[in-house]
Design brief:
globular, 5 helices, Jelly Rolls, seven-stranded mixed sheet, mainly beta
Amino acid sequence: MKILSVTVGVILVTAIITTSACRMQDTKPQPYEYTSTHEIKPVDYYENNRIKDAERTAVMTLEQLGYPDLVIAGGEEAESPAIEYTLLDDGAQGPDKWYIIDFHFLIEFEEDTGGGFCEVSASPVASVQFDTMRVNDAPFIRVGGQSVTSTRVDVHYYNYITLSSTNPGKNEMTFKYKEYQGTKVKSVTIYRDTGIEVTTVPPHDESIPPPEAIETFYGVSAELTTKLERICLADPRIEELLKDREYSFVVDGHTIENKDYNLSLGVRLKDNITGEQFQEWMNGGRQDSDIIREYVGVLDIGYSARYDIAIDIQKEAVTELIKEARTNPGIPELTPVEKQRAVEIALADTTLRQILEGKEYKIAPGGIGVWHSGTTKLGAVFEVDFMQTYKIDGELPRHQSAPYRYSGEAGKLMVGVLLEENRVADIIPLPIPKVK
């Protein structure tokens, strides 16, 4: 099951994991019994898989700088003092040397941690988000798409450092965490082998696409985003592409608005800006045009068509609209009729109706995605967003497995519908996401 999304930074995606299981005919499956432990559970988290097999050399570690393991704790938010480290005079990303963060830490959650999430960061170069919930009245943790059955998680996080966070000479790093909603962190220990490494392996395959094609662009202020969106949607070529791609339908009194496209807009910054300039731009609302090189966007239509956009903000015109070449067969699409039928099946499901009874909620505010296995269309997936956090208690369905017992808070539900079988196959409670 997969939902297409475009984000900037460290992204944590909650997915539904399917496993095979056999069911005896005429035998009711027994609920899944989840139990939590206090054993340390290791998690290796590679933000970019090219790092896994790359030969890396340590540039600096906390231990080399004279620091022991650092422990930060206390309340909903805690932070360490800034740590200074130095890169060589040519300490910039690429094209021959690429810097990587090896962020090694142990996070311990309180036994009574509830539904929510927290962020542990080595600012400004790394950030790791944890989702927490309660299953069978015990903590359940997810990080980097992996589930953890322990309140103590040992994380090795690896990622290429962003261009703006890699500067010759003195650099700073601050370790901190912040809790949201019902998550409770006992402590975070930053291990002294945390540090910066260097490799000759770039973060992308240099043959396809070239670096220019995947250059990062940054989101801007709401006011500027609205202006860029207005320029793009007024372009006749884009108008034609989006024709009939936005529609709505009503099921049981619920209006579901859906659009089969996503428009991401932002800017690329000038070369050789300093980390200080970048931070000033970020903290100042991302509006200062002095360091902006160009205004750009990406238009995704469905799952298989993508267009790169260049914008002249002075002339208020789209100057380039280029369709990216795709070599794979693409992900299958849902028709408007199939999307409506998926919602009808979901709202007729007994378990889901019992959960939703007496609650305020909105169906599929982020649209309806296709549940697929490669090129095969299985069904639909969408979220049901609650207007507040609610307590959920009961047996929930899980695809190709026995139902599981859930008792805890939820800010929304992930619902999976198998269209050929006309049934809800997955209901997964999720916390309310953090809004930045």
